[in-house]
Amino acid sequence: MKPNNILIAPIRSFFVETGELAYFAGRFFREIFRRPFEFKELLKQCYNMGNRSMLLVGVTGFIIGLVFTLQSRPKMIELGAVAWLPSMVSISIIREIGPIITALICAGRIGSGIGAELGAMRVTEQIDAMEVSGTNPFKFLVVTRILATTLMIPLLVIMSDAVALFGSFLIENIKGDVSFTLYFDEVFRALKYSDLVPSTIKTFFFGFAIGLVGCYKGYYCKHGTVGVGLTANAAVVEASMVVFIIDFAAVLITDIFYSI
Fold first, then answer.
1. DSSP for 23-58, written as a single string
2. What is the pTM of this model?
């Protein structure tokens, strides 16, 4: 292969896949308003993605709160600013750490699951059978899953943030004998709408991106059963990258908006 082709081929592949993903997203927005509305399947997917992810997300958030507070406390004591620890931890977790870590966890668990499930249905020709029978597989399989991730990821992030703050409180209670009331009074005193609103809004985009990438990869899975594993892996990697890009864009837009 010529040196030029080595450079051009990945770039061309990137733009082709980006275009296909954009078309896939456009098809989702067209189908979402067309009948029939698969409410039962949507509720089922919300349960599968939300309820079954709660333990993993909760444990992760709790450990984040513990570790972040344990690592920050000695330096805050050295600077004589230990009273500011609840404020610092709460703002850091709510603004950035909670949403991004939870989204990455969900990209690994939910994104790979969607990619593997739809990929297996594609290679075993179940999706083709649905098309032949007159069922709209895109509406039933893709629209419901993307909507479910869009709705469930923000709820999981809120739960993760709450558990992380509780884990932080436990460390402060044990190390500094800080009461529950005093700790959370400082937390809510530090938080503003400018912290809560942007960090909540971007989680809907995280959920949409995770569902979109997972469904796209699974729906167009190729190369038989081997492709199912490759699809699940690609769904995790690409969904994680898109989450980082969305997070950077959200931070940039928020910074520009509040600096005006």
1. HHHHHHHHHTTSSPP-HHHHHHHHHHHHGGGHHHHH
2. 0.90
